[in-house]
Amino acid sequence: MPKPLRDPKPMLDRVIDEWGGHEDLWVFGYGSLIWRPEFGFIERHPARVHGWHRALKMWSRVNRGTVENPGLVFGLLSGGSCRGMVFRVPAADGLETLGRLWLREMPTGVYDPKWLDCTTAHGSVRALAFTLSRRSPNFTGTLDDERYRHIFANAIGRYGSSLDYAQQTLLELRRHSIHDAALARLVKLAQASAAAQRVTVPPDCGEPTAPVYPAASSSDSSTKE
User: Fold this and answer.
1) What are phi and psi for residue 97, nearest 5 degrees?
2) How far is CA 110 from CA 26, 65, 71, 156, 169, in A?
3) Cβ count near 104 (within 10 Å)
4) Which pTM value belongs to this model?
5) How many CB atoms lie within 10 A of CB 179?
6) Under the phi-then-psi rule, with left for phi > 0, alpha for psi from -120 to 50, and beta for the rest, what region is 20?
7) In this predicted model, what pLDDT tens digit does every residue of 192-207 receive, in sequence order?
């Protein structure tokens, strides 16, 4: 495990204090939280946030890579807009859910958790999102195509490879009719590189498989935007 960039506990305490615990907790997912939330929820809706965008520009030295061979995961960077999903967690389960999220997303304190206004077909909700600062040492900056090819071909962490992560996210975004041209280009780049090296990779993402959501979910009001 890499040395923490910051102590994540004070950030968790701040988020708990800001949430208050008296109302249901909303969480915004823009990457793997969409297809592997790992917490129970009672609603989920397609949503958009303005002023932020999804980018595969965060080094991962645990989940999708190692210290010696870092991989990539998504960060939510300032600028533009982002379509994803919001999840509503019952107030009674909020503390446990936040604890799980911190173990998964914040073991090294890399993200800046923020409350963002998310627009859905049912109105606006204020949801917790894990954003990334460009001043963070885990922000990759601009990577050329050759660097992406190398990472996709080699980086593997405790949850699998960076390529699997990118492909699964693209599948799930497409399943919800969310178009991400930048991600689609990177996945196509990786597939072309793998094909050139005679590595077996599906020629296209094709039809996405249905994700497995937690049994605790009692309703699902997701609709295509």
Assistant:
1) -65, -45
2) 21, 15, 15, 19, 21
3) 17
4) 0.84
5) 9
6) left
7) 888 877 544 555 555 4
